[in-house]
Write a structure and sequence with these properties.
Blueprint: H1 3-28, H2 35-50, H3 54-59, H4 69-81, H5 84-109, H6 111-119, H7 121-126, H8 134-151, H9 159-172, H10 180-192, H11 199-214, H12 222-237, H13 240-243, H14 251-257, H15 272-289, H16 291-306, H17 319-340, H18 343-350, H19 354-380, E1 385-388, E2 400-405, E3 411-415, E4 418-423, E5 426-430, E6 442-447, E7 453-457, E8 460-465, E9 468-472, E10 484-489, E11 503-507, E12 510-514, E13 519-522, E14 534-539, E15 545-549, E16 552-557, E17 560-564, E18 576-581, E19 587-591, E20 594-598, E21 603-606, E22 618-623, E23 629-633, E24 643-646, E25 651-653, E26 663-668, E27 674-678, E28 683-686
Antiparallel strand pairs: 1-28, 2-3, 3-4, 4-5, 6-7, 7-8, 8-9, 10-11, 11-12, 12-13, 14-15, 15-16, 16-17, 18-19, 19-20, 20-21, 22-23, 23-24, 24-25, 26-27, 27-28
Helix pairs in contact: 1-5, 1-6, 1-19, 2-4, 4-5, 5-6, 5-8, 6-17, 8-9, 8-10, 9-11, 10-16, 15-16, 15-17, 16-17
Length: 694
């Protein structure tokens, strides 16, 4: 086999390895923090494309901080496979394709570098999920490779240089941070074509034109929207969300030098630390051979260290040159051995032919695929767990946002496509088309003491009583806002006949109290409510009402308000997404930085800092029949969609059961089963604490 064919053959094997490892990650990685955000944008684009409403497509401002190209590709996937989990998996497949292409291209330059990139955990993760990284990671490498090819040609302007410019434009239309390759190319272009400087502005003009054509987001107002998109990032980097992470200036170096610890069962090889060490040692060798990649690596690392927003996915802007530097060091060592010793020549004589290598590679990949398949099957059939999704039940949607259990043991489910009741093994679905439900996007469900079922939706409140429906909206009542996020019936308001139980509603713009006849609304402006967005409400046995809001925890005792924030109490974080009250009257607050517990006098916090809770973001909470505290999580630097249980003495981690299920609801039924509602993967039921046979 010729040297060229051997190089292509090795690159193909490495690409197949990357494909297998990425496929494994696509199936096993949990839904990450930004994936639902990008999929929502893709869904909106897909809806506009399907309706051929091009003005709506151009006018879309969802996630305007990033160019729309990758989200448009995901929209194409949604059009092919639909929304929900199917659309997400299609988007991940698109990401996988570009991730594998990047590995293949780097393997053609340096097989060892391609191998390192194929097994690099950070790269696998963020080019196997529905993030924006895979396409610009590939096109940024393509821009450099094509430039090097074009610069060797005799003609001033050739196809390789044009390809480099187009790749740079595609990179810009995908995600801005990867544009550091433009800064890398500029001095090399200017020096190489110093006698024909007209080539430089022409190539950057082609890149700019490509960017403009592909960035439909700026078509309506090119300068205005481009500035809005670019200026978003400095503002965001100083936002509370970023600042409160307290990440040190060297955080990105930590990410670059460590394998991802968050998903230990997903990545088979954790060599990121070795790759980083080899890359540092390989910089002088790479500088002598391909200095453009050294500039890319150093400039990229400088940007990572200086920019205040230090999310792990940003490290992919230097993934290719990092692995190339590591690969160059090893290749240089091999070449030295070949020149000064007989070791390499001896090994060549012992090496099998390419057909044997191919056979070994195919067998190895088949074993890896088989191992992954059986690992996934084992996880799906683990003891004590049941799964309800649209494909195996009457659940109307896999996006489950609310759960409640009625007095007969029926489980009520709120989804983005209506409500459902699961009773005695049968499902009944309620939507705006077949019932009096006011809106199909059901965010809250609650059962009052008289057995009425209340639904909080994006269009108001509906209540089902004895087969009859009533609805309350801002148009026909004094409900403060139609976007209802939570519902809490008063436990002491059991009434019969025509009387209505008193109910609290938390909305985007405050809280509403309804006693069946009159409404009372509370906002931060007219009361002591800590924040306008009310995420959770709980009523204790003394009649006090506790509100978890975007701005802290508030309690209403009669007519007196008290609020607890990070500034006047031991509350760990001001966004209180869930509030539950245990049998001892302690207030448990789920926040974005752990769980804080208030006993009326003192505060205690559980999070990763004190090594008691296996994650920080507590999205939803519930208390089971044993008094155990269940917490659901959804955060990028922990087990996404994880869950944990506190038994009064220690925490137990259940996150391994939620690899594809960020949680939005938890409830326990009368038989001790724990029901978990997830954002993209339906319902999971844990029967480990079941008290009776069903």
């Amino acid at each position: 086999m010729t040297e060229a064919k051997s190089r292509y053959f090795v690159a193909l094997l490495i690409a197949l390895l990357a494909l297998t490892l990425h496929w494994r990650a696509v199936l096993m990685l949990p839904v990450d923090y930004d994936e639902p955000i990008y999929m929502e944008a893709a869904s909106q684009y897909a809806s506009a494309i399907e309706a051929r409403d091009w003005s709506r497509l151009i006018a879309n401002r969802h996630t305007i901080e990033h160019p729309p190209l990758v989200k448009l590709l995901y929209a194409a996937g949604c059009l092919l496979r639909g929304g929900g989990r199917e659309g997400l998996m299609m988007a991940r497949a698109i990401s996988l394709a570009f991730g594998v292409l990047q590995v293949a291209l780097l393997a053609l330059l340096n097989p060892i570098a391609g191998f390192f990139l194929a097994i690099h955990t950070m790269t696998i993760k963020y080019t196997s999920q529905a993030y924006l990284e895979a396409l610009p990671a590939f096109t940024s490498l393509l821009a450099i490779v094509a430039y090097e090819k074009g610069a060797r040609q005799k003609s001033s302007l050739n196809g390789w240089l044009i390809l480099s410019a187009i790749a740079l434009g595609v990179t810009a239309a995908s995600k801005y941070p990867y544009l550091i390759v433009g800064l890398v190319l500029a001095p090399f272009l200017a020096w190489h074509y110093r006698q024909r400087l007209w080539v430089v502005p022409l190539l950057f003009g082609i890149a700019l034109l490509t960017f403009f054509v592909l960035d439909v987001q700026i078509w309506a107002d090119p300068m205005g929207r481009l500035l809005e998109s670019l200026l978003y990032h400095p503002t965001y980097s100083q936002s509370t969300h970023v600042v409160r992470q307290h990440l040190p200036w060297w955080q990105q170096l930590y990410y670059l030098s460590h394998s991802i610890p968050w998903h230990p069962d997903v990545f088979l090889l954790s060599w990121d630390t070795l790759i980083f060490a080899l890359a540092v040692l390989g910089i002088p060798f790479l500088c002598r051979r391909q200095p453009i990649y050294v500039l890319w690596l150093l400039l990229g690392v400088g940007v990572l260290l200086l920019w205040p927003t230090r999310w792990p996915q940003y490290t992919l802007i230097v993934g290719a040159p990092l692995c190339l530097s590591a690969g160059t060091l090893i290749m240089s060592g091999v070449e030295w051995l070949d020149q000064h010793t007989s070791v390499i020549r001896t090994l060549r004589t012992l090496a099998p032919d390419w057909t044997t290598w191919l056979f070994v590679a195919v067998v190895g990949l088949a074993l890896l695929i088989g191992f992954t398949y059986f690992q996934l099957q084992y996880a799906q059939w683990m003891k004590d767990w049941k799964y309800y999704v649209t494909s195996n039940s009457g659940l109307p949607s896999n996006a489950v946002r609310a759960l409640a259990v009625d007095r007969e043991g029926g489980v009520w489910v709120g989804t983005e496509r209506g409500a459902a009741l699961f009773r005695d093994g049968n499902w009944a679905v309620y939507t705006t088309a077949n019932s009096g439900l006011v809106n199909d996007n059901v965010r809250a469900v609650a059962i009052d003491s008289a057995g009425r079922v209340w639904f909080g939706t994006d269009g108001g409140v509906s209540v089902l009583e004895g087969g009859e429906w009533r609805s309350y909206t801002t148009q026909n009542s004094s409900l403060i806002d139609d976007h209802v996020l939570c519902i809490a019936p008063m436990p002491s308001s059991a009434q019969s006949g025509q009387a209505m139980a008193a109910v609290w509603f938390g909305t985007e713009n405050g809280a509403s109290y309804f006693d069946g006849q009159r409404w009372i609304n509370y906002t931060p402006e007219n009361s002591g409510l800590a924040g306008a967005r009310v995420l959770s409400i709980a009523v204790d046995d003394r009649g006090r009402t506790w509100f978890g809001t975007w701005g802290g925890l508030s309690v209403l005792n009669g007519e007196a308000w008290t609020s607890y924030t990070t500034y006047n109490s031991g509350l760990v974080f001001d966004t209180v997404s869930s509030v539950v009250i245990d049998s001892q009257g302690r207030i448990w607050c789920g926040t974005l930085d752990g769980v804080s517990v208030f006993d009326g006098q003192a505060w205690r916090t559980y999070n990763m800092t004190n090594m008691t809770l296996p994650f920080n973001t507590a999205t939803v909470m519930a208390i089971d029949h044993r008094g155990q505290i269940w917490v659901g999580a959804d955060f990028p630097t922990g087990p996404i969609g994880g869950a944990a249980m506190y038994d009064g003495e220690k925490w137990h981690n259940y996150s391994q059961y939620f690899s594809q299920a960020p949680l939005r609801a938890i409830v326990t039924d009368g038989e001790g089963r724990i029901w978990f509602g997830s954002l993209l993967d339906g319902i999971r039921v844990y029967e480990g604490f079941k008290t009776t046979d069903s």
